Amino acid sequence: MNEIKIKELKDVDIIKLASDFSKWQQKKKDELPYRINLIDEIGANENAHNRIFVKIISFEENGHFPFLRLFLNFLGDEFGKIKIVKPIFTVEKFRIDGLIRDVDGKYAIIIENKIHDAVDQENQIERYQSILKGRGYKESEIYTLYLTLKGGSPSENSFALNKRNSNYREINFKDDIIPLLEKHILPTCRVKDELLVSSIKQYIDHLNGILNQREIDFKMNKELTDSLLEELEINKATEKYEKLTKVDNALKEIENVASCLKEHYESVIKEELSDWKKKIKSDFINKDFVSNIDDTKNKKYFYLGIKLEYKEVEFSCSIGMDDYYSEPYYGITVRGCSKEEKNETIEEFIKDIAELKGFGESHRWYAYRRTKLENVITEYLEFCRKVIEKTVPLECTTSEQ
The organism sits in which domain of life (predicted)? Predict the structure, then answer.
């Protein structure tokens, strides 16, 4: 790695090291053979992963569901005992990411997908289980899978520890879904199902890309690691524990710098939130402003916007962020309302808003769209005006006229 000339780790050196390393990494990536993955190019959020995975395991052949059977057997224990009769596969129904129901088989499987580390909602899993109980399923017939990228557990606030019984399982894409697809499902695919095979291979490749473990990347990553260790003179250490000490010291210095940078980044985001607040208040002077950005104790999620009404039911047009580092979004939500629960009146109201096409939804948001940090305030203000037009005359609500 000729570009990096670092012999001692100092703060300024670490910044240069990171910059030079990134440039060299990109150079090595550019040297790799041309490749294309359609899922990479289009982009896949949690909803897309829900649709893809559920579509794969719902494969039916002569009234049988071989991939679902393989999946349940792979999970084993209580899941392996489930009897498949007439399963119904849905995505985002009852706001549950993935759901497999079988009235005849007497089971319902909840798949809660956190591949991109979405924040756990309060009582989220227990709420989903209650919905299914209300539809006639006994507690013993409800199964829950908490699916993450590389491993993790829901917060106690989302799903209490004493509720996690043998019908609950934590699985992840790295250690469970990829091996399931590669070693169990792909080998059983028929030759004539070439599109199915191609789709599964593309999905496996996409997941490996997210995890930075594509085979084509292994050699490059090893070269990068070896060069980095050489430049930091870690390889000169003769004893194993001496090497570990040097690596540990390097990590501590890097973490120290990263902590300083994170603190600065968060301060800039706070300034941005404050600027958005001023802009929203200025543009909609006759509307109630709602926000939690001034709550110094809260770091879980942020929202700011204006409160509106339709047929005497409150809702808000707001900007949201799951944390300081996540991509912002805007839309229609219950955040900031006197009662933060969805209402059927607003759900009916938004069906007629053409601008909501392609928006996602969640427990607190009737509709939301993610966008870039630099674009969100402009897109939000334009969106807000269009929503207001559906409720009351615009000239009564904004100051720009």
Answer: Bacteria
| Model confidence, pTM | 0.65
Residue 397's pLDDT band (cuts 50, 70, 90): very low
Q: How far is 81 from 92, CA to CA, in rounded Å?
A: 26
Q: How far apart are CA 166 and CA 169, in angstroms?
A: 7
Q: How much is the pLDDT for 2?
A: 42
Extended strands (E) in 322-394? 329-333, 365-370
Cβ atoms within 10 Å of 291's Cβ, excluding its own: 21
If asked whether residues 49 and 176 sit together in one domain, one would say yes
Whether 92 is covered by a domain: the verdict is: yes
Q: Which of 111, 152, 157 is nearest to 132 (CA)?
A: 111
State the residue range of the domain holding 350: 269-391
Cα(169)–Cα(148) distance, integer angstroms = 11
Q: What is the CATH number of the domain that holds 93?
A: 3.40.1350
Same domain, 156 and 288: no
Question: Which residues, 6 or more positions from 18, have their beta carbon under 8 angstroms from its beta carbon?
Answer: none
Rounded alpha-carbon distances, angstroms, from residue 40 to 45, 49, 80, 170, 184: 11, 12, 33, 26, 24
User: How many structural domains does the chain have?
Assistant: 2
Residue at 296 is within a domain: yes
Q: In this structure, is residue 166 part of a structural domain? A: yes
The closest alpha carbon to 375, from 334, 325, 336, 319, belongs to 319
**Same structural domain for residues 175 and 303?**
no
Please count the helices (runs of H) and the strands (runs of E) in the chain.
Answer: 12, 10
The full DSSP string for 67-132 is: HHHHHHHHH-HHHHTPPPSS-EEEEEETTEEEEEEETTTTEEEEEEEETT-PPPPTTHHHHHHHHH
Q: Decide if 147 is inside a domain.
A: yes
163 with 283, same domain: the answer is no
Contact 121, 86 (CB under 8 A): no
Residue-wise pLDDT tens digits, 123-167: 889 999 999 999 999 999 999 999 999 999 998 888 999 999 999
Give the mean pLDDT of 269-291.
96
Let me know whether 51 and 182 are in one domain. Answer: yes
Report whether pLDDT(1) > 60: no
CA distance 241 to 357: 58
∠ Cα 369 370 372 (to 5°): 135
d(CA 346, CA 334) in angstroms, rounded, equals: 10
